[in-house]
Amino acid sequence: MTPRREHPVALPLENIDITGGLWGERQTINRDRTIPAIYRQLKATGRIDAWDLSRKRERPKRHTVIYMFFDSDTGKWVEAAAYSLAKHADPVLEKQVDDLVSMVQKAQQPDGYLNTYFTNVEPDKRWTNLRDWHELYNAGHLLEGAVAYSKATGKPALQDILTRYIDHIAERFGPDEGQRHGYCGHPEIELALVRLYYATGERRYFDLAKYFIDERGKQPSYFDMEARERGEDPADFWAETYRYCQAHQPIREQQTATGHSVRAGYLYAGVADIAIETGDAALTETAKRLWDDLTTHQMYITGGLGPARSNEGFTFAYDLPNETAYAETCASISLAFWAQRMFHLDPDGRYIDVMERALYNTILAGCSWDGEHFFYANPLASYPNVNPHEPFSGITSARHFRREEWFLCPCCPPNYSRVVGSIGTYLYSTTADTIYTHLYNDSRAHFALSGGEVQIAQQTNYPWDGEIRLSIQAAQPTAFDLALRIPGWCRSYRLSLNGAPFETAPSQGYVHIRRQWREGDQIALTLDMPVERMMAHPQVREDAGRIALQRGPVVYCLEEVDNGANLANLTIPHSSALTAVMDPDLFGGVSVITGEAVRIEPPTWSGDLYQPIDRAAPAAVPVTFRAIPYFFWANRQPGEMRVWIREG
Amino acid sequence: MTPRREHPVALPLENIDITGGLWGERQTINRDRTIPAIYRQLKATGRIDAWDLSRKRERPKRHTVIYMFFDSDTGKWVEAAAYSLAKHADPVLEKQVDDLVSMVQKAQQPDGYLNTYFTNVEPDKRWTNLRDWHELYNAGHLLEGAVAYSKATGKPALQDILTRYIDHIAERFGPDEGQRHGYCGHPEIELALVRLYYATGERRYFDLAKYFIDERGKQPSYFDMEARERGEDPADFWAETYRYCQAHQPIREQQTATGHSVRAGYLYAGVADIAIETGDAALTETAKRLWDDLTTHQMYITGGLGPARSNEGFTFAYDLPNETAYAETCASISLAFWAQRMFHLDPDGRYIDVMERALYNTILAGCSWDGEHFFYANPLASYPNVNPHEPFSGITSARHFRREEWFLCPCCPPNYSRVVGSIGTYLYSTTADTIYTHLYNDSRAHFALSGGEVQIAQQTNYPWDGEIRLSIQAAQPTAFDLALRIPGWCRSYRLSLNGAPFETAPSQGYVHIRRQWREGDQIALTLDMPVERMMAHPQVREDAGRIALQRGPVVYCLEEVDNGANLANLTIPHSSALTAVMDPDLFGGVSVITGEAVRIEPPTWSGDLYQPIDRAAPAAVPVTFRAIPYFFWANRQPGEMRVWIREG
After folding, report:
1. I need a labelling partner for A270 at 20 to 30 A (CA). Which of A101, A614, B339, B376 fits?
2. pTM for the whole thing?
């Protein structure tokens, strides 16, 4: 089962192997280090044992809500494990999952209900607070993990268990009399249900997803009603407004991306799914409107979303502070999910430009080079002693903002892991007779087109350079349209087909080569990748007078370890030449950017904290700077970091 | 009773009248608008009625600690009222205070104890949590109010009541066996006790102040012990560290200004008081060390202290963010208190420079031009929709950071009011034969020197210009040293005595004129007051590449109402001329600064949120800017504000 055939679909994971390059390296680390590290943490924090209902648990005194979404963390790890197992046999890992599946099976209630917290800890509270307690969100993540695992291993058990649970949910929630007209405070189940629909062909799962999206935000509010049933005043909602969970009005009436950014991204991805499948013009319009608002007003250059810690989300247009940026890793993941679906809804490279921005910057930054430390928030500037999301940092002792082994709320690590494991599905989309290339990375992909089966091998060192070679393998000549993405960041490129220049202007971000393809056809695409001085919209007050360095899709940053302290005093002149060079010794080989800058500082400072500038006599001292890819920051000795650099 | 005579002392309030000028205008508003507004709020919020113990009160469910320091708010209002009554009869106001005094009298317990909360609401909790519950802090503020009121009106009742209470405290706390070795989590009582000592001559009050300061931070910690007595684990202290309340080590061992900044300022003021009186060299050294740390590493150019909301206080050296600055009004008030005492301990104009900076910037900013709205936090940049201290601002609706009529924790409004009412005491200090002038403002002052009695009348439009005239009145020729402060911000000045130039280099910030003064002697001091482009220390990352405009002691800011939006794009070139002009229509007449700036913005923006700077093509458009005194910001239509302006 695939989406309506007039829309492109992602190439399934089983059709593609990542064979090297940056993503290959990240996948190896993911398999060898990240997935085991997450399992150890799930085990150590009781998330695995939570499935053993014979262990009676008490309501925790603090951070109770965290315990309510234990299951989602495990679900995401199962999904990450599934993608790894799909490509790389690992009996130890598979046994870990199978043991878990046995526990899950035993934990399922006779009526199909499946939730460790509301079965074991507060069974009387089941389905009493959809707004805050993540019950459907947990179901969604477990469902995604189940679908992925059953597909990867051919073992139906987990998907069967979850399908029973979803049937239970579908009975309880829906438009009919006797059903609850509710939906989850934290969207996620919507896109998971669409996935189950595609996996099973059962339309009722799609219908439930669509119901959740259509019902959301209607008046009278389900969340109001539910709060009153709990004896609470809905006005006491801790987050003050249902904008927090995008339930302040029906989705079709919403004008701006708002609220908790992960919730927003997942919801909007679900909206795109429904629009693809239904062709609903109003919903398509809504998805595009929210997309335009988010990407032109509320997105960091790193693809980070949501500047504010208070709501883990959006504030208002052009409010993009750097040092205090929340920019949760999960939010950028939700953006990538949504972007891919937007392309499928409306095939245009502009969506993939954003997907690429999120993947190559904030999402990759979510995990350390060693694969065992994670960022939850992803600021665009960092300063010793400052942890903007830890109230007493800089006060009790010197602390740096660094990746952590785990979090009280550990949504990001397994989310990162499942994206890396499934990165292959982001490289291509297809229709019956078109292959769209989105990302470039060493890989081998297999396509079943209306005209026959073909394979494409990619060879490239992308994103470190823009040389990309595609080799076609086809048992027999096959007609299709190969649509090669020319990224939005790319101002000039050269394309050749079997050594001869191929000159066609790209359309909506893609150069289309329609022909009868033959075994051994060679495409060489060179995307010119100079260092770009990027400027933010003039209403982004935090970035005024500053530039960010970007090369290809990769945003760069300065770190103190390379450039000394007081990075705020470093200015890159208009005229200075900027050079990208491969540093083979850095993180296994990455391109760094060097160039001439000036440090504008008084040679000495003998006055008070403040003094007239003519007395301070700042001098401009030429220095050579070195910038590294943002996504690998904080992997060496701690110190200052900044993306937006003074310019002038 | 006055301090040891080798140290200067402040001229008492009864010896000086403010006769006009900026402070005269603020005092009129304070009397007519601010003091009544605060009383209305005290009444409306139950702070007056709290003294009626016949009204049984329940423990509030939320914000309980706020209710525990109700008495301090009232104490500060009494003090403000006292200063006003000392200069201006007001039967209505005096009756309000007298009625309150009657209630206070009835509320005093047979043993002298006096606290509305711990008498009426939780009597069993008396003296069980000095760390958090502000009991001694309340006593301190009530005491200051009582001393001021009894002096202003000659009515001894309130001071007698408080003296009984202090005697009760002195019995309970102290070094002896059977006494508790405690001290307040929120310092304040120390300086209040010294004040009572000066008012009564009773040395035991001084000794108690000294005891509180000497005992603070000793090991084993009183706060630890007290927490264990409550059955709590001291490690669970919500503020994580006793640095929060400057009790992490004995004061003589403390190296840096740390923790909650109001607590710090009051404590350090008390430390200076003790050092003045005892001549304790180590304590003097400590006071100077903490002073140097605070003023050269941790002070905003506005005299604001404490960048962080989390601890309402200090973080680390050079961490001075502008938009999120906490910089509580009370903290700058505590700094002014401390600065004046530092001068008395170590007569040097550098302390008065800081006192002046705090008074003319953050402290004056604490109240609106209309006298009825107040700032608690005092950011140095503000942006529509951003209230950095209100978690959901910018999310639920458009809100500006503006002065409020009142606060849940309303410490700042009455604190501002008492400072304005007593501003006369900051103009002069004296020894037996020296008169130091600190601040310049229209005023008449009376001095009783060893050589006889003299009066000085000041005429000036300071801080709007630097012309100051002092006229001496003396019934007979009187010898004394007139020490005229040449502010640290002043690079050139002219001084004449009876029309003839008087040329002596200043020493430690003062020009000394020692002579036999006669009736009618005239001094004319002209402090050149050009607009200064101020630069921050090169490690202040937030201010890199920026200047602040200062003229005399007044720091200026740009407001959107004068300069349009997107103030971040405004740059003041090195070379542009800056002019100060009096605007008689603005806030009753203030100097504003105008000059040429450039707006660096792309004329149009047709691209994405980010684009290469060569495509954005920013242009520099010349504009005339207008800056107003920072302390009057947010008195017109809401919009952006910034103190630190791009320079280049």
Report:
1. A101
2. 0.95
